[in-house]
C-alpha cells in the first residue's frame, strides 16, 4: 500500500484465514480457525468425500493439464486511486513470476523451526516480487516481518486475536504471524504438509503486493463507501486476489518446492474449509470455500498474473 493508515472504527478483519480476523481490523489478515471437527475433518462441507472428489467439486483437476490463511487505517493525507489501478494494474501484464529457486528448510516441531521456515520463505517472496515489480517498472519495498511467540501489539491492533494466527498491517507494512498459532489453527495438519503453512505467508505477502501496487488503496476506498454489499464485495476481491497471488508464487517455485499430490490436496482442503458462506451477509468478506480455494488453484495452474485480476470478474466469481 502506498501510505500509512491510522485505525478507523472497528470492523471485521480483512483477509482470509490469513488476512483474516483480528476482530477490530478490516485490513489486517488473521486466519479464521478452520471449520473442522476434533478429528480434523471439515465440518459440514466435505462430509465423507475423499480429497479427490473434493477437488472435483471445485471444478479443477489435481495435477492435470500442465503437469504436474482487520480494519485498515487510512492515510493521514487524502489519497485516491482510480479504478484502473485495480482493474488494469501494470503487474497483470508482467506474466508469470520468475523462479528464484526457493528451497525451504524441513519443518520439525517447535517455533525455532517454524521461524526459520518463515524467514527463508519470506526471503524467497522478497526476491520473487521484487523482480516482478522491476519488470513492471514499479517501485517495490519489501515488507517487515514479525513472527511472534508471545502476545504483542501493532498499529492495527493487538495479537493474538481469537482464531487469528496471521495478518498484514498496512499501517507499518508488516506481516505478523504466530509461530505456534499458525500450526494450532491449521486443524492438526502434519508439518510435512508444508504448503498449508507456506500459503498463509504467501497470502499475507500478497496483501503487501496489493499495497505496493496501489490496489489496496482502491479497495480501501470501495470499502469506505458505506453500504454493506459494496464493502464486503470489495473485501472479497482483495482477499481472493491475495489467494491467487499465493498460488502463482507456489507454482513458480515448483522445481525446487515440489508438492506431492497429498501435499497439494491438503492445502486445497485447508483453504476450502475456510470459506465464509455460513456467516451472515454483512460478515462475508473473504469468500466462499469454493472460491477461497478456487482462486489459489487459478493462480497455481494459470501462473500468469493476469489470471489474478479479481477486479474485472463478475460478482458471482467472488461470492
Coarse structural class: mainly alpha
Mean pLDDT: 79
Per DSSP E runs of 2 or more residues, the count of β-strands stands at: 5
Order of helices and strands: HHHEEEEEHHHHHH
The proportion of residues forming helix, as a percent range, comes to 25-40%
- The global form is globular
Q: Spans of 5+ residues with little confidence (pLDDT < 50)?
A: 1-78
Biggest sheet: strand arrangement: 1-5-4
**Can you summarize the main beta sheet?**
3 strands, mixed
Percent of residues in beta strands?
5-15%
What's the N-to-C terminus distance? Answer: 24 Å
Rg on CA atoms, Å = 18 Å
Number of H- or I-type helical stretches: 9
Describe the structure.
With 319 residues, the chain is mainly alpha-helical. It contains nine helices and five strands; from the N terminus they run H-H-H-E-E-E-E-E-H-H-H-H-H-H. It has helices spanning 51-58, 83-87, 111-136, 181-184, 194-213, 215-223, 228-252, 261-272, 289-302; strands at residues 144-148, 152-154, 157-159, 166-169, 174-178. Strand 4 (166-169) and strand 5 form a beta hairpin. The chain is globular, with a radius of gyration of 18 Å.
Amino acid at each position: 500500500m502506498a501510505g500509512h493508515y491510522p485505525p478507523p472504527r472497528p470492523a471485521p478483519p480483512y483477509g482470509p484465514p490469513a488476512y483474516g480476523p483480528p476482530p477490530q481490523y478490516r485490513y489486517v489478515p488473521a486466519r479464521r480457525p478452520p471449520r473442522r471437527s476434533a478429528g480434523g475433518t471439515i465440518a459440514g462441507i466435505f462430509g465423507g468425500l475423499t480429497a479427490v472428489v473434493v477437488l472435483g467439486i471445485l471444478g479443477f483437476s489435481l495435477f492435470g493439464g500442465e503437469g504436474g490463511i482487520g480494519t485498515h487505517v487510512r492515510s493521514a493525507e487524502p489519497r485516491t486511486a482510480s479504478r484502473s489501478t485495480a482493474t488494469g494494474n501494470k503487474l497483470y501484464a508482467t506474466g508469470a513470476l520468475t523462479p528464484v529457486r526457493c528451497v525451504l528448510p524441513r519443518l520439525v516441531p517447535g517455533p525455532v523451526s517454524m521461524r526459520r521456515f518463515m524467514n527463508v520463505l519470506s526471503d524467497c517472496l522478497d526476491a520473487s516480487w521484487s523482480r516482478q515489480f522491476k519488470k513492471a517498472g514499479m517501485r517495490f519495498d519489501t515488507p517487515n516481518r514479525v513472527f511472534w511467540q508471545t502476545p504483542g501489539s501493532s498499529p492495527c491492533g493487538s495479537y493474538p486475536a481469537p482464531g487469528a494466527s496471521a495478518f498484514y498491517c498496512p499501517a507499518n507494512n508488516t506481516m505478523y504471524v504466530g509461530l505456534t498459532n499458525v500450526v494450532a489453527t491449521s486443524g492438526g495438519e502434519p508439518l510435512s504438509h508444508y504448503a498449508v503453512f507456506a500459503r498463509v505467508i504467501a497470502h499475507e505477502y500478497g496483501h503487501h503486493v496489493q499495497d505496493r501496487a496501489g490496489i489496496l488503496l482502491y479497495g480501501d476506498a470501495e470499502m469506505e463507501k458505506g453500504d454493506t454489499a459494496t464493502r464486503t464485495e470489495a473485501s472479497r476481491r482483495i482477499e481472493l486476489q491475495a489467494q491467487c497471488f499465493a498460488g502463482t508464487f507456489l507454482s513458480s517455485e515448483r522445481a525446487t518446492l515440489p508438492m506431492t499430490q497429498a501435499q497439494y490436496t491438503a492445502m486445497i482442503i485447508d483453504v476450502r474449509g475456510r470459506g465464509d458462506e455460513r456467516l451472515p451477509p454483512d460478515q462475508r468478506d473473504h469468500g466462499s470455500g469454493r472460491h477461497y480455494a478456487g482462486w489459489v488453484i487459478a493462480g497455481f495452474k494459470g501462473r500468469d498474473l493476469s489470471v489474478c485480476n479479481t477486479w474485472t470478474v463478475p460478482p458471482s466469481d467472488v461470492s
